[in-house]
Fold:
Amino acid sequence: MHGKLITFEGGEGAGKSTQADRLAKFLNKAGIETLLTREPGGTFGAEAIRDLVLSGTQDRWSGLTELLLMYAARLDHVEKLIKPAIERGVWVISDRFADSSMAYQGHARGLGKERVEAVHKAVFDDFEPDITILFDMDPVMAMKRVETRGEKISRFDAESIEFHKELREAFKKIASDNPDRIHTINADASIESVETQILFAITQKYPELAAQLTRAD
Ligand code: TYD
Structure:
């Protein structure tokens, strides 16, 4: 049986990585082999591109160069890690994927939806995640979380609050364009509540999983 690609999307500081860990543990308990990964990155080559694209000054790359770097990293990631894992029956959970390119480079950096879709099609044809969870929350609250965690500030974290507000709207628009694939959850809630919302979305899409999970309890 083929595995699946589950992606987590949203602005900065929404708690995606914590939830990715929790979902992987949950699926493992139900006997499903999982693989946690992230973008940009996930393979040796894509992590090298990640360093290039996330560090340096704000104007280091033009929007289009940024998009192409993201897709170069994504292609390496899909060819070397994601597709082979799915073929082995593994459920892959990726912290960000192509919707981030649409939101950040397509909308917030102003390249436009058509340009990003054209690049996606040229690189991947119709390949897309099986299910995507969009972590939605007020960017002001989210940036406070980033600050309190004292994490390294990337080129994107350092953008203005307006940029992050635009991003939130962009992700909402992408979700409304893809209602069957993207499930929006309220990320401004406790860790447990966010986890429950995610499991609800996933078991609704894959009801057979609900039975497996109950047996695993
Ligand atoms: P990261 O520190 O992983 O951010 P987060 O914890 O919020 O996921 O940095 C990834 C950054 O790269 C993030 O700001 C979003 C950006 N990005 C793009 O601009 N386009 C893309 O296609 C991807 C995958 C990420």
Observations:
- The pocket of thymidine-5'-diphosphate is lined by residues 12, 16, 39-40, 54, 70, 95-96, 100-101, 104-105, 154, 156 (CB under 6 Å).
- The two ends are 23 Å apart (CA to CA).
- Residues 13 and 142 are 5 Å apart (CA to CA).
- The chain has one domain: 5-216.
